Amino acid sequence: MIAVRALGVDDLDAVASLERASQPQPWSDAALLVELVHDDAVVIGAFDDGALVGYVAVRRLVDECWILNIATHPSARRRGVAVRLMDEAVARGAVWASTSLWLEVREDNAGARALYERCGLAAVGRRPGYYPPLLPGPREAAILMRRAL
Ligand SMILES: CC(C)(COP(=O)(O)OP(=O)(O)OC[C@H]1O[C@@H](n2cnc3c(N)ncnc32)[C@H](O)[C@@H]1OP(=O)(O)O)[C@@H](O)C(=O)NCCC(=O)NCCS
What we know:
CATH class: Alpha Beta
Strand content: 35-45%
Largest sheet: 7 strands, mixed
Radius of gyration: 15 Å
Bound molecules: coenzyme A
Number of domains: 1
Order of helices and strands: EHHEEEHEHEE
Distance between the termini: 27 Å
């Protein structure tokens, strides 16, 4: 069964290891640390049998709630971990009295976009050239997605 809790500085090594295993361009340890200690951020971890298998980093920005990053370990995918983390992000937005939930996603990240649509977000904009390329080539567009809270 998946259990969730807010992560702290003591979880940095575990979440950094998960991030490196999960992302094609992982966040640095320093970037993760900023979110772990930021007053207007929360990093929520998902655990399976005590092992960290997913996390979501969420920020409050005035009356908006932003998902900055989300990842599930490759060995734990398609078992509902990310949906559970998205539910936690929505719950955090409610605690913050946020009026909307926002995120940016690579245009060609079909899996993540399907996840977000399933969680009620809809595309509301496109930012051309937003992301560095994963392979040699042009920069990639971001799709801006939003849902009301
Ligand atoms: C995107 C990601 C977080 C999804 O995590 P997950 O725990 O496997 O997602 P879930 O099991 O909760 O998936 C829920 C639903 O999202 C959709 N979905 C998730 N991954 C998908 C994929 N690769 N292809 C198509 N749909 C997908 C499906 O509708 C899925 O439901 P289903 O399994 O019943 O079909 C994971 O693939 C990941 O870590 N990817 C690399 C990091 C990344 O791209 N993060 C997003 C940055 S914006």
